[in-house]
Write a structure and sequence with these properties.
heterotrimer; A alpha+beta (326); B alpha+beta (310); C mainly alpha (440); B: 310 residues; alpha+beta; Immunoglobulin-like; 8-stranded mixed β-sheet; 7-stranded antiparallel β-sheet; 2 helices; 15 strands; C: 440 residues; mainly alpha; Formate dehydrogenase/DMSO reductase fold; binds iron/sulfur cluster
Chain lengths: 326, 310, 440
C-alpha cells in the first residue's frame, strides 16, 4: 500500500518536473504566426475588474496586477481586503466526511498529516438525536476572544473579518488556545518538518512556515482570496458543502452554485454554532436535513484507528456494540 | 517415465522463468526510465508516453474580443487523479480546409493557455455559420500529441440598462451572425442574467428570448460597491452552439455599501485598549508606585542621616 | 515575656555562624534535584514542548498548576505578615519573618514556572515591547512585578533593624565581608527616634500596599481563567476564590515551615504551642471560607447543569479524578477544621499535619481546576493521536516540579544562614504588648 503511494508521488513529481525540462517555456504573447502582421492577436491585454482601496470597481489590465504569488508582508497582512467581509456557509446536509477539505488545506499549508486546521467532527448532541458530520474551520469570530487575550498582539482581526496569527510575534503563551472555545488553534509542539517555504517568505496570510513554540490555525486562505479564488477547502469539496463569499455583496458560492447569502440563510434556516458563547462567528451552518448520504458513508475508507477517535459518540458506541453482539 | 516427467517439469519451469523475467522487465523498465528522466534530460524512446487531454473552449468577451482557452491535463487511469500540466506550448488554428495559425500560448499552473483574438478579426465560417477552432500540441519526449477542437456560431448580444417607468430594466437583444454577416435573431432560448461578484457571477434572473429580444426587472435590494455600481452580465455559459458568450455593463443600480469594522464600544479585541481600562490601570499603578518611591526616598534619607552622624 | 536583644543575639548567632554537616548534606541533595530539573529544562528547550504531557487540548499543565500554587503560597507572607503587622498582633514576633520569607521565595519561584510553559522564551521581551493592555497576561506581568518589588521592599524594611543588630554584635564570628555587608545593608540605623519613626512609618505603608497588591495579583491570576469561556473557569467567583485559596495554602505552608525550623534550630522556647494554635485558628477560618467558596462554585454549576458544566462535573465525579476531588476538596477542608476545631486534637504535630494536608490538597485543587476543564472542550476531542486525548505528567515536568520544590527549600536554607530566622527586633520590641493600630 505504502509502496504504491510512493510510486504515485514519484510519478506525480515526474509530471511536474519532466515537463518543465522537456519543453522550453515560451511566453504567452510571443507568436510566430502569420497573423501577427494582421494584428489579429490581441496579446495579453485582458481587462479585468477589480475593487480599489475605496471600494470602487475599476477596470485594469490584467498584466498590471501584482503577480499572484507575491508574499504579503507582515504589516500589510493587518489590512483586510477593502470593503469586504468574508463569511462561510457550511451545508451539513451534504457533508459525508470525504475529508477533501482537510487534505486540500493540509497540502496548501504544508501541514503534517495529523495536523488539521479544518476538522470534521462526528457530532451527536444527545443519544436520542441523529449524528451528523460537522466540518469546523476557525470561525473568524467578530468578537474573537483569542484576539482579546493575546498579550503581544500576535493575533489580530482585520477589517475583512479574517483573524490571523503572526508567527514572528507570537510568544507561545497559549492563552489564545484556552480562550478560543472552538479548539480552532493549534500549537507547534516541536520544530515542524513539513515546510518547504523559506523563512523569508513568511506571511501571516498563509502562516507558512510554522515555527516551534507558536500557534497556527485556519486562515481563510487570504492568499487565494486576493486572487479572487475560493479558499482551498471550499474549492476542494466534491459535494459543494462549503460556500464562501463576501456578505457585503451578499453573495456566497461553492464554486458551482452562486446564491445570495441572506436568502440561503433564510430559506435553509442557517445558524451559527454556539451562538450563546457570544463570539459571533463568521461561519454559518445549514442544518443537517435532507441528507444526501447516509452517515455511515463517512466512515468508508477510514481505518480502525480513525474510527476509534469517534468512540465516545453514542452512535458509534451502539454500532460497535451491535457488531460485537453479532 | 520419471525422467520424462522431470524433463517436462523442467521445461515448464523454463517457460515460467522466461515469462517471469519478461514480466519483470515489463513491470520495472518503464519505471526505471521514468526515474531516469526525473533528474536528467536523458530520454529513452522506449519510455511509455503519456497521452494528455486537450480541451478547447471559446469565450466571446464583452468587448467583442474572443478568447480561446485550452485546458491541458492528464488523468491517471489507475488512480483516477488528474493533473494540470503547465509550461506546454499550444498552437491555435481557425478554419476547416485551410488552417489559419492564430498564435501560440503556454499553459499556466492550472494547465490553461489563453489566446485572445481581436474583435475585428474575420473568422472563416461554413455554410451553417460555424467557426471551427483547433488547438494543437505537437508532443514531445514524454507527452503524445494532442488536439482539441470546437465549433461555434458567432453571437452578438446587446445589453441595455435603463429605467422604464421607474422600473430598472435589463433588456437584451441576441442575434446569430452567420456566414456573409447574415444576422438571425435567437428565438425561444433562455438567457441568464448575472451580476459580477468577487468569486463568481450571481444569477439574478432568466430572460426567455422571443425574436432575439427579452427584458428582466432588476432586483431592488442588491448591494453594489461603495458607489452602488454593479456589473450586469448577460451570458451563455459553455453553450453547445455558441460557447461562452457574454456582454456586461456597469451601472449604479446597487445599494451603496460601506464596510468598516464596526465594533461595540466594549469590545476588547481592538488594537488599543478602552479608555476606562487605561485610566484604571494608570491610577492603580501610580498609586502603588508612588508609595514605593516615597518609601525608597525615606530610606535614602535614612542613609544620608548616617553620614551626618558620622 | 520580655526578650532583650543581647540574649537573643547570643541565641541566634550560632544559627548564622555555624553550618552543620547535615545542612550541607541536605543542601547537596536538593542541589542534585535542582540539577536534574535543569537537565529536564534543557531537554524541553532542545526537543520542544513535545516532551511535556501538554497537547493541543490541555495546553496548560502542571506548570501552570505550580505557578498558581507558588503564587498562592507567596500570599501567606504578604497577607499574614501584613495583617499581623498592621494589627500589631502580640504573638506575631516569631512567625512574621518566616511568613515574609515564604512570600518572597515563592514569589521568585512562581513566575519561573509560567516561563516553562511559554513556547518562545526568546521573545519574552515582546511582553514589554508590544504590550496589549486588554490581556490578563499583561495585567499579570504588571501585577507580579509590582508585587515582587513591593515584597522585596517590605522584607528589606523588616530586616534593617536586624541588620543593625548583626552589625553591632561584636562577637559575631563571620568573615569580614559578611560583616561589612550587614553594615552596608543596615543603612546606618542607630535606633534614634527619627530613624525609628521612618522605619515604622514606611513599614506601615508597605504593609498596606503589600496586602492590596497581593489581592490584585491573585485576582488577576484568577481572571486569566475566569475571562475565558471554558466550562469550570468562566466563573465570577474565581477572583475571591483564588485569593482565599491562596491565603489558605500559604497559612498551611507557614505552619509546616514553623515546625521545621522549630525542630532544626531548636526554637521551642520561642515558637510555642500557642503560636501553632493561633496560626491554626487562622487556618480553620480560612478552611471554612475555602470550603464555602468551593461548595458554592460547584453547587451552582451542578444545580444548573448547563451542558458543558455537567460534562465537567460528571468527569470530576466519575473518572479517576474522583479520588483527587475527594482528597483535595473534602479532606483539605475538613481535616484542618476538625483538628483545630476540637480542642483535644490541637497538638503541635496534629496542626502541622493539618497544615501539610492543606498544602498538598490545595495543589491538587489547582490541578483539578486546570486540567479537567481543558480536557472537556466544547467540541468533543476526536483525535487519532492518543496523547492528544488526555493529559499525563511526563518526567520532564516532574523534574521541574521537584526542582521548584528543592529551590524553595534551598533558598530557605540560605536565608536562614543570612538572617536570624526569627526577627530579633520584633521579638524585642513588641513582646507581650499590643500597641494601637496604625501609627502615622
Ligand atoms: S474560532 Fe477561535 S481562534 Fe477562530 S476567531 Fe473564533 S475564538 Fe479565535
Ligand atoms: S500563543 Fe501567541 S498568539 Fe496566542 S495569545 Fe500567546 S502570543 Fe498571542
Amino acid at each position: 500500500m505504502e509502496e504504491k503511494d510512493e510510486n504515485k508521488g514519484s510519478r506525480r513529481n515526474f509530471l511536474k518536473l519532466g515537463l518543465g525540462v522537456g519543453v522550453t517555456s515560451i511566453l504567452a504573447a510571443t507568436s510566430a504566426s502569420l497573423l501577427t502582421s494582421n494584428k489579429a492577436f490581441a496579446g495579453n491585454s485582458e481587462k479585468i475588474k477589480v475593487l480599489t482601496q475605496d471600494g470602487k470597481l475599476v477596470e485594469v489590465n490584467k498584466a498590471d496586477l501584482v503577480p499572484a504569488d507575491q508574499i504579503v508582508s507582515r504589516e500589510d497582512s493587518h489590512k483586510g481586503l477593502p470593503n469586504r467581509k468574508f463569511a462561510m456557509v457550511i451545508d451539513l446536509g451534504k457533508c459525508k466526511n470525504a475529508r477533501k477539505c482537510i487534505e486540500a488545506c493540509q497540502e496548501g499549508h504544508q501541514l503534517p498529516k495529523e495536523q488539521e486546521w479544518m476538522r470534521v467532527f462526528l457530532m451527536q448532541d444527545t443519544e436520542k438525536t441523529a449524528p451528523y458530520w460537522f466540518p469546523r474551520p476557525c470561525f473568524h469570530c467578530d468578537n474573537p476572544l483569542c484576539v482579546s487575550v493575546c498579550p503581544v498582539g500576535a493575533t489580530y482581526k482585520r477589517s475583512d473579518g479574517i483573524v490571523l496569527v503572526d508567527n514572528e510575534r507570537c510568544i507561545g503563551c497559549k492563552f489564545c488556545m484556552t480562550a478560543c472555545p472552538f479548539s480552532a488553534r493549534q500549537f507547534h509542539w516541536k520544530e515542524p518538518t513539513t515546510y518547504t517555504v523559506p523563512e523569508e517568505k513568511y506571511s501571516p496570510e498563509t502562516n507558512m512556515p510554522g515555527r516551534e513554540g507558536t500557534v497556527g490555525k485556519c486562515v481563510f486562505c487570504p492568499d487565494k482570496l486576493r486572487k479572487g479564488e475560493l479558499p482551498r477547502c471550499a474549492s476542494a469539496c466534491p459535494m459543494g458543502v462549503i460556500y464562501f463569499g463576501d456578505i457585503i455583496e451578499d453573495t456566497v458560492t461553492n464554486g458551482d452554485e452562486t446564491i445570495r447569502f441572506s436568502e440561503l440563510i433564510k430559506n435553509r434556516a442557517g445558524y451559527r454554532q454556539f451562538e450563546e458563547l457570544g463570539t459571533e462567528p463568521s461561519v454559518y451552518y445549514l442544518p443537517p436535513v435532507d441528507r444526501q448520504f447516509p452517515l455511515e458513508r463517512g466512515l468508508d475508507g477510514l481505518d480502525e484507528q480513525q474510527i476509534k477517535k469517534y468512540d465516545n459518540v453514542p452512535y458509534i458506541k451502539n454500532l460497535k456494540e451491535t457488531k460485537d453482539g453479532i | 517415465m520419471i525422467r520424462m516427467k522431470k524433463k517436462k517439469t523442467n521445461h515448464i519451469l523454463n517457460i515460467f522463468k522466461t515469462v517471469f523475467i519478461a514480466l519483470m522487465i515489463l513491470l520495472f523498465v518503464p519505471e526505471i526510465f521514468i526515474h531516469a528522466q526525473d533528474g536528467a534530460d536523458s530520454v529513452s524512446a522506449k519510455a511509455e508516453k503519456i497521452s494528455p487531454n486537450l480541451k478547447l473552449l471559446t469565450t466571446k468577451n464583452s468587448d467583442e474580443t474572443r478568447s480561446l482557452i485550452a485546458v491541458f491535463s492528464y488523468k491517471d487511469s489507475e488512480t483516477k487523479q488528474s493533473f494540470d500540466i503547465k509550461d506546454v506550448t499550444i498552437t491555435f488554428f481557425v478554419g476547416t480546409d485551410s488552417l489559419i495559425n492564430l498564435g501560440t500560448a503556454t499553459t499556466d499552473e492550472k494547465g490553461k493557455a489563453i489566446c485572445s483574438i481581436k474583435s475585428n478579426f474575420d473568422f472563416p465560417k461554413n455554410e451553417e455559420g460555424f467557426i471551427h477552432f483547433t488547438a494543437e500540441f505537437k508532443g514531445n519526449d514524454v507527452l503524445e500529441d494532442a488536439s482539441g477542437e470546437v465549433d461555434v456560431k458567432d453571437l452578438s448580444i446587446s445589453l441595455t440598462l435603463e429605467e422604464i417607468d421607474s422600473v430598472r430594466t435589463v433588456s437584451v437583444k441576441v442575434e446569430q451572425i452567420l456566414a456573409n454577416n447574415v444576422r438571425v435573431p435567437l428565438n425561444e432560448v433562455d438567457m441568464q442574467i448575472f451580476v459580477g461578484r468577487m468569486f463568481s457571477h450571481l444569477p439574478i434572473g432568466t430572460i426567455s428570448l422571443a425574436e432575439g429580444i427579452g427584458t428582466l426587472e432588476f432586483p431592488v435590494n442588491l448591494p453594489g460597491d461603495t458607489a452602488g455600481n454593479v456589473i450586469v452580465i448577460a451570458k451563455f455559459e459553455e453553450h453547445e452552439e455558441f460557447g461562452t458568450v457574454l456582454k456586461s455593463d456597469t451601472i449604479a443600480w446597487g445599494i451603496k455599501t460601506m464596510h468598516f469594522n464596526a465594533y461595540s464600544p466594549r469590545s476588547l479585541w481592538t488594537q488599543v485598549a478602552p479608555v476606562w481600562m487605561i485610566v484604571t490601570l494608570s491610577i492603580m499603578l501610580l498609586g502603588v508606585w508612588g508609595h514605593y518611591i516615597y518609601v525608597i526616598i525615606q530610606l535614602i534619607l535614612l542613609k544620608k542621616g548616617e553620614k551626618k552622624i558620622a | 515575656m520580655e526578650y532583650d536583644s543581647s540574649k537573643l543575639m547570643r541565641e541566634f548567632a550560632p544559627q548564622i555562624e555555624k553550618t552543620s554537616k547535615s545542612w550541607y548534606l541536605v543542601f547537596a541533595t536538593l542541589l542534585a534535584f535542582f540539577l536534574f530539573g535543569i537537565f529536564g529544562l534543557y531537554t524541553q528547550i532542545t526537543k520542544g514542548h513535545v516532551v511535556t504531557g501538554m497537547r493541543d487540548n490541555v495546553v496548560w499543565g502542571v506548570y501552570i498548576v505550580n505557578f498558581i500554587f507558588f503564587m498562592g503560597m507567596s500570599y501567606a507572607g504578604a497577607l499574614i505578615s501584613g495583617i499581623l503587622y498592621l494589627f500589631k498582633s502580640s504573638w506575631r514576633g516569631p512567625v512574621i519573618r518566616m511568613a515574609e520569607l515564604i512570600t518572597i521565595i515563592s514569589l521568585f519561584i512562581g513566575p519561573v514556572f509560567i516561563l516553562f510553559c511559554i513556547g518562545r522564551l526568546d521573545r519574552l521581551y515582546y511582553l514589554i515591547l508590544f504590550p496589549r493592555i486588554q490581556s490578563p497576561i499583561t495585567w499579570d506581568v504588571i501585577a507580579i512585578s509590582t508585587d515582587l518589588i513591593g515584597c522585596i521592599i517590605f522584607l528589606y524594611l523588616s530586616f534593617i533593624e536586624d541588620f543593625a543588630k548583626l552589625r553591632d554584635y561584636k562577637e559575631l564570628q563571620l568573615p569580614k565581608w559578611r560583616k561589612r555587608l550587614y553594615k552596608y545593608l543596615a543603612l546606618g540605623y542607630q535606633e534614634t527616634p527619627w530613624q525609628y519613626k521612618i522605619i515604622s512609618h514606611t513599614k506601615n505603608i508597605m504593609a498596606a500596599m503589600v496586602i492590596a497588591i497581593a489581592i490584585i495579583v491573585y485576582s488577576v491570576l484568577a481572571w486569566i481563567f475566569g475571562v475565558t469561556l471554558q466550562p469550570g473557569w468562566h466563573s465570577t467567583i474565581f477572583g475571591p476564590y483564588f485569593v482565599i485559596a491562596a491565603v489558605y495554602s500559604g497559612t498551611g505552608m507557614l505552619i509546616v515551615v514553623m515546625w521545621i525550623f522549630r525542630k532544626v534550630y531548636k526554637l521551642e522556647e520561642y515558637i510555642t504551642e500557642k503560636h501553632f494554635v493561633n496560626v491554626g485558628v487562622l487556618l480553620l477560618i480560612l478552611a471554612a471560607f475555602f470550603g464555602y467558596f468551593t461548595f458554592s462554585d460547584y453547587l451552582t454549576k451542578w444545580y444548573g447543569s448547563i451542558k458543558m458544566d455537567k460534562v465537567l462535573i460528571d468527569k470530576l465525579f466519575t473518572s479517576e479524578y474522583y479520588y483527587m476531588f475527594i482528597a483535595s476538596n473534602y479532606l483539605g477542608v475538613l481535616v484542618p477544621i476538625i483538628v483545630v476545631g476540637i480542642k483535644k486534637f490541637r497538638t503541635i504535630t496534629n496542626i502541622t499535619i493539618a497544615g501539610l494536608i492543606t498544602v498538598v490538597s490545595l495543589w491538587f485543587n489547582r490541578y483539578l481546576i486546570v486540567v479537567p476543564t481543558l480536557e472537556t472542550p466544547y467540541f468533543p476531542i476526536q483525535d487519532v493521536r492518543s496523547e492528544w486525548l488526555s493529559y499525563s505528567v511526563t518526567w520532564v515536568e516532574m523534574s521541574l516540579i521537584l526542582a521548584g520544590i528543592s529551590v524553595f527549600c534551598m533558598l530557605f536554607m540560605l536565608a536562614s544562614k543570612f538572617v536570624p530566622i526569627i526577627s530579633i527586633s520584633e521579638m524585642e520590641k513588641h513582646t507581650g504588648e499590643t500597641r494601637g493600630l496604625m501609627r502615622d
